[in-house]
Write a structure and sequence with these properties.
mainly beta, Thrombin, subunit H, 2 helices, about 5% helix, elongated, disulfide bond, signal, serine-type endopeptidase activity, TRYPSIN_HIS
Length: about 350
């Protein structure tokens, strides 16, 4: 990003004093919708760029990417400001949540470069001009794969999880009894990763299974506004799943409708960037779930999490886990473990403030 040259940045708490009663009226003659596909980029510029836009004009750019992506705008702006370094009725707006109303947005004026990234998959840019002055801007738009965010950056073990800490966490719901029976993790807008052994008998029928996302305490609806229940259209078990040894104990659930991402719901990152042996020994992983808090004990109605340490295969077998294979991951921490009804939930590794799931 280029060096800032006298750029004036004013946070948008004063926007109610500079926006008209109807924001949309400003943009009736120039209101553009830009849809970006994965793997693409584009440039958004003010009218007549590289010359100035006309005095008294305005334009709004509503930009949308596929779910699972954020949008980064790298902008060079030249917006007039007066002798007192105030924005003289010339404003460049950035709304990181994509709202078209612009209330709460940042607005800028001056000359220089600025970079902003959307909170999710929508971003709104706009400018407004007074009757006498003009300016210009150009913004390069790029997409970033987005996953694994969290409301909390602090991780401790053996505790109740923070509300919406694990945004990819799914509770598999038995729709016949309205009860949770396993866990899972969102990996894309239509797919959930879980365990094959969870889906037997009547629960092998997709119509009998639901996916609860964005929840924390499933007995109340007041703890989070992000919870939603999705129906399942298909359940696919790993082709080499062995129900006796539990080798390849993997299932993919497809939802009937697209999972809507927000601050409390989104995909986990997948461990593509790690070597196959990166988690062999003494790596701390998180294991969240709504399972029982003791063997044969009561289930937890709130999402809980425990930290477990990985163990290499040789040590694991020497401690009695003789059936473990090279395709499985061994964890052990004294006095801590997952329990009944935690099955299907993933192990999470915290990396660069993002959650990556491991099988």
């Amino acid at each position: 990003m280029g060096k800032r040259l006298g750029l004036l940045l004013i946070i948008g708490f004063a926007l109610t004093t500079i926006l008209p009663t109807s924001v949309n009226a400003w943009f009736e003659s120039c209101d553009r919708q830009i849809v970006l596909a994965a793997g693409t980029s584009t440039t958004v510029s003010s009218p007549n760029y590289s010359s100035n836009y006309g005095a008294g004009t305005s334009c709004r750019y509503q930009i949308q990417a596929p779910q699972g992506f954020t949008i980064t705008a790298s902008c060079s702006i030249k917006i007039y400001r007066d002798a007192n370094n105030n924005c003289a009725n010339e404003y460049f707006y950035v709304m990181r949540d994509g709202s078209k109303e612009l209330l709460g947005s940042e607005y800028l004026c001056g000359t220089g470069s600025v970079q902003r990234t959307s909170r999710f998959n929508k971003l709104t840019l706009a400018y407004t001009s007074g009757s006498y002055n003009t300016g210009s801007f150009t913004c390069s738009l790029t997409l970033n794969c987005d996953c694994g965010w969290s409301v909390s950056s602090k991780i401790v073990g053996g505790r109740t999880a923070a509300v919406n800490e694990y945004i990819s966490m799914v509770g598999a719901v038995n729709l016949l009894s309205n009860s949770l029976f396993c866990g899972g993790a969102i990996i894309s807008p239509f797919y959930i990763l879980s365990a094959a052994h969870c889906f037997t008998g009547s629960l092998a029928t997709p119509a009998n299974v639901g996916a609860l996302v964005g929840d924390h305490d499933y007995t109340t609806g007041s703890d989070t506004s992000y919870s939603a229940l999705y129906r399942i259209s298909s359940i696919v078990k790993h082709g080499l799943y062995n129900s006796v040894t539990n080798v390849n104990d993997i299932a993919l659930l497809k939802t009937s409708s697209e999972i809507q991402y927000n601050a409390g719901v989104g995909p986990a990152c997948l461990p593509y960037g790690f070597a196959i042996n990166a988690f062999d020994n003494n790596v701390i992983l998180d294991a969240p779930g709504w399972g029982t808090t003791s063997f044969a004990g009561p289930v937890s109605t709130v999402l809980r999490t425990v930290q477990l340490n990985t163990m290499d295969l040789t040590t694991c077998k020497s401690r009695g886990m003789t059936d473990v294979t090279s395709g499985q991951l061994c964890t052990y921490t004294a006095g801590k473990d997952t329990c009944q009804y935690d099955s299907g939930g993933s192990l999470y590794y915290r990396y660069n403030k993002l959650y990556t799931i491991l099988l």
